[in-house]
Amino acid sequence: MSEDCIFCRIARGEIPSATVYEDETVIAFDDLSPQAPVHTLVIPKMHHADLADNVSDAELAAIFAVVPKIAEAKGIAQSGYRVIVNNGEDARQTVKHLHVHVMGGAPMTHGMIDFADD
Predict the structure, then answer these.
(1) What is the pLDDT of residues 2-58, one digit of tens each?
(2) Domains (ranges, CATH) in the chain?
(3) How far apart are CA 82 and CA 74, in angstroms?
(4) Model's pTM, two decimal places?
């Protein structure tokens, strides 16, 4: 784990979070700045900056196996939800710790891509 990474600190329990799910490999918690009525983040407890940072197949499987559990727990499994991974600078990844956004709770726009003008 990284000493100064905010998500590592959440995983270690140093920063409180609205934890939705936790096991030995991952932790899921509600986003502090939600972009949808339901906006939960799923992170590996081990620090990985992004998908290219030596993430094991087992960790990836654990992360994505949790997604349907989060959707069920949050009441969006039947209505639908979006799963997003922002990977790198162009994708506007703001926290350099691999994380998956599980978002739902209201109808979303059709388009999935919105490019910045800069």
Answers:
(1) 779 999 999 999 999 999 999 999 999 999 999 999 999 999 999 999 999 999 999
(2) 6-39+50-104 (3.30.428.10)
(3) 13
(4) 0.93
Dihedral through CA 21, CA 49, CA 37, CA 81, nearest 10? -80
Mind telling me the catalytic residues?
99
CA distance 12 to 53: 20
Give the tokens for residue 116.
């910045």
Listed in sequence order, the DSSP H helices in 1-118 are 6-11, 57-73
pLDDT in tens, 53-99: 999 999 999 999 999 999 999 999 999 999 999 999 999 999 999 99
